[in-house]
Amino acid sequence: MTERSFLERVRTVPRFPIRLVVAAMLGLFAVSVIGILWTHRVTTESEVIGGMRSILANVSDGTVARSDAFLREIQDDVALTSQLLESGTLEFGPQLEDYFGSVLRNSPNASGIFYGTADGEFLFVNRDDQGGPAGFRTKTISLEDGARIVDLVFRDADFEIQSSAVDPEDTYDPTVRPWYSAAVAAGGDLVITDPYVFYTSQEPGVTTALPVFDLEGDIAGVVGVDVSLSQLSSFLRELRLGPSGTAFIVNRSGEVIALEDQSELRQPDGGGFRLSTIREVSDPLVAQSFNQAIDEALGTEARFFSVKGGPSTDHVFVVPIGVSDWVLGVALSESDFLAEIRQNQLNNTLIISGIAALSLFLAWLLIRNITRPLSELRERAAQIEAGTFERRAPLQTRITELQQTSDAFDHMVIGLKNQQEQDQRLLAAMEERIKERKQSQELKRANQALQQFAYMASHDLRAPIKRMVNLADLAVMDSDGASRELVQPMRESAIRLEELVLGYGRLAGLERGEPQDKCVSTLVQQAQEQSSCGVDIDLRDDAVVTCDPVLITQVLVNLLENASKYGASDDVMIKTADDGAIVTISVSNPVEKTFKVDDSVFAPFRRLVDDDAGSGLGLAIVERIAHLHGGSVTAQCVDDTFTIEFSLAKEGQK
Amino acid sequence: MIFVPQGALIALVDDDDIDRMIISRVIGLSHLDNPVVEYSSGTSFVNQLEQDGDDPSVSLVLMDINMPGMTGLEALEHIRTVCRLPNLPIVVMLTSSEAKNDIERAEELGAHGYLVKETGIELFVARINETFTNQE
Q1: Are the beta carbons of B7 and B57 closer than 8 angstroms?
Q2: What CA–CA distance (Å, rounded) separates A235 from B15?
Q3: Above 60 in pLDDT, residue A463?
Q4: Which of A283, A355, A421, A631 could form a disulfide with A626 if both were Cys (CB 3.0 to 4.6 A apart)?
Q5: What is the pTM of this model?
Q6: Conformational region of residue A248, where left means phi above 0, alpha means psi within -120 to 50, and beta covers everything else
Q7: Best CA proximity match to A332, nearest among A43, A42, A46, A53
Q8: B120: contact with A, CB 8 A cutoff
Q9: Are the Cβ atoms of A469 and B120 closer than 8 angstroms?
Q10: Sign of the CA dihedral running A194, A200, A202, A205
Q11: 3-class DSSP assignment, residue A151
Q12: Residue B16 near chain A (CB below 8 Å)
């Protein structure tokens, strides 16, 4: 118990079941993996989005630069033409028409170039395919003596005249056109008109216009170049923005200047067309993303937007195009860039989930394989603690360390069992030794008692011898020496006898002979033959005793003679009992009257009745011999029956 | 030497008839001039002494130690304690041997001495003469 309480006292460290530990490890593992996946996803997506924005910015820069260059080229044409007219190098007429033709052939972005005077004259050359596959058309409104003449000339790609016509129905007045008034209002600065659908080509475009001043500084006319917006849309188409990405140019009125899909640039309007507004574009990225951002995007610095629309987030970059009030928008869909990454992440998640499930299963197996043998070992240990060494089949486990532990435990159990058996053998040997020592002490006591007995017996035997000697002396005195010759030898014999008795008395007690196996019945028979008394013996049961048969027979002789001498009848009953270790022999005989008996009856020379003619040694001898055989003797008198019971150890008597 | 007044009664207590006869004869053969009264058991002598009361009729008691029934030592103890006679009569224990335990016990109980029953009358008489005297 002390050991146990010590063990309980040292159990102060918190302990956890292995299930909990493994569950905690798995939980930590799961949290780590989820964290890593999440961090990876966030990092990757932010990098991708950063990359997307970088692409957007680069694309925008390039596009803006091209758009600027596109417009600047036109502006240069307009400015050069204006200067040539102001300097008089060019004049209204065929010379100007030729010049316009060369400008168009050298400036592919210009779809038409014209000059309208304050007087209402007008010269316009534009690209036209009626004079051949890629020809030109010239419209001239001239005033001759107040008369207004409108000529139409169609030319081929080499500017050779193919056909001509006069259009007397034409009422075109350049001074009322929007570009004219806008250029006049700008007071010398270059004007770019809002986009509109060209009258002649029905294509959307813008007009770049610049006034031409005369020598007095008055406005002589306005020169302009029509720019077809289809060229800008071609630029945007060349941008590679992925499957969903798109780009567009709008002006601040929300009218679409350029779009990847050029067919959406215009909308039917009456019999002709008008420009599409941004809200009318079918591209979902443009329609949804930009619709939400357009109002605040227009007129600001370049900026990014993230527009959540539908399943994906769109990233939009809007930037003003410097030479105009146009705005370039470039949009990319996250899903174009992230779809594969997300699919990859989904795959990773599925794989990790599978691994986690497998880990759980393996952990369950591990726990099961650990806890079962451990609880089995604990149970066995508890049994051993309770003192049970039950033989059990060795544990079988797949865990090497557990198997080693179990084997070590089994070896320990075998060792304990051997130790226990050895302890038992030692205990038995010790008990045997104690018993031997006890018997040795008993033997010593018995020897002392025997020596005392022998000493006293020798002295009492001397009393009658003394009497014989003294009587012999008196006999000689009384007979005046007449009988001296007869009496003197008798006297000498008596003295010799006394010497003998003294000598025997000095011998220390009785000696036991070699033990023999004898039946009690045999011993009783021998005793009956040796004793002179004629008792009737009733022998109940029989047993084999290992003894000195001479001494035990002497015991029986003494007891039979006592029974004969003091008994109320000659009936004697002898009973034997054998309990395996001790054989008990009891001798009973009836007496006249029940009397009190104690162990003093076994004292030497103790006689029970006054006129006892006995020696007083019979029962003392019985006790002495019983002790010599490792036994004891008791006397009792119950119901008019006197019983002496003596026991003999079956083995180990000394 | 133990003084025994001349003519005073000597009690001889012994269960053995032969021993009583021998000792009476030895006393007769010795210097002592005293009558001897014999008792065959301690019980009978103690009974007589109790009848005598404070004035015991005997001056010297020769008492055998080993007797059946009341032993000599028991009788001595009875005389000294029950009869309250601490000094008189003089009690000398008779013994066949010089058993040390008996002699020491007798002295404790108030015996004046002990007398070994000698082997041989001549030796026995000499022993009596050495032990007792009528002369003051």
Answers
A1: no
A2: 166
A3: yes
A4: A631
A5: 0.43
A6: beta
A7: A53
A8: yes
A9: yes
A10: negative
A11: strand
A12: yes
ipTM above 0.90, yes or no: no
Which chain A residues have a beta carbon less than 8 Å from that of B120? 469-470, 473
Chosen for mutation from B14, B24, B94, B97 (greatest number of chain A CBs closer than 10 Å) is: B97
Q: What is the pLDDT of residue A8?
A: 65
Based on the number of CB atoms within 10 Å of its own CB, is A152 exposed (0-12), middle (13-18) or buried (19 or more)? middle
Q: With contact defined as beta carbons under 8 Å apart, do B40 and B69 qualify? A: no
Q: Does residue A469 belong to the interface with chain B, where contact is any CB pair within 8 Å? A: yes
Per-residue pLDDT tens digits for A509-519? 455 567 788 88
Per DSSP, the three-state class of A250 is: strand
Give the Cα separation of A89 and A539 in Å (integer). 177
- Cα distances from A228 to residues A177, A187, A320, B101, in angstroms, run 18, 25, 20, 162
Q: Which of A463, A465, A474 sits opposite B25 (nearest CB)?
A: A474
CA dihedral A381, A386, A391, A396 (to 10 degrees): -20
CA gap A111, A207 in Å, rounded: 10
- Nearest-CA neighbor of B58 among B76, B83, B37? B37
Give burial (CB, 10 Å; 0-12/13-18/19+) of A452. Answer: middle
Mark yes or no for CB contact B120/A477 under 8 Å.
Answer: no
Average pLDDT of chain A to the nearest whole number: 80
CA–CA gap between residue A412 and residue A346 (Å, rounded): 54
* Predicted pLDDT at A508: 42
Chain B: give the shortest CA distance to residue A473, in Å.
6
Q: Which residues contact A33 (CB under 8 A, 6 or more apart)?
A: A352, A356
- In the structure, what pLDDT confidence band is assigned to residue A278 with cuts at 50, 70 and 90? confident
Q: Look up residue B5 and give its two tokens.
A: 């007044």
Measured CA to CA in angstroms, residue B136 lies from A100, A137, A341, A526, B133 at distances of 202, 205, 151, 64, 8
Closest CA to A645 of A599, A588, A580, A564: A588
C-alpha distance from B87 to closest chain A C-alpha (Å): 29
- Identify the DSSP state of B53: T
Whether residue B17 contacts residue A464, with contact meaning beta carbons closer than 8 Å, is answered with: no
d(CA A536, CA A560): 10
Instruction: Tell me the residue ranges of DSSP E strands in A191-259.
Output: 191-192, 196-197, 204-213, 219-228, 246-250, 256-259
How far, in Å, CA of A483 to CA of A394, rounded? 102
Give the distance, in angstroms, between the CA of residue B69 and the centroid of all CA atoms in the same chain.
Answer: 17
Structure confidence by residue, pLDDT tens digits, A210-240? 999 988 888 899 999 988 777 778 878 887 7
Query: How is residue A185 written in tokens?
Result: 């209002």
A425: its two tokens: 């053998």
Q: Is A142 helix (H, G, I), strand (E, B) or coil?
A: strand
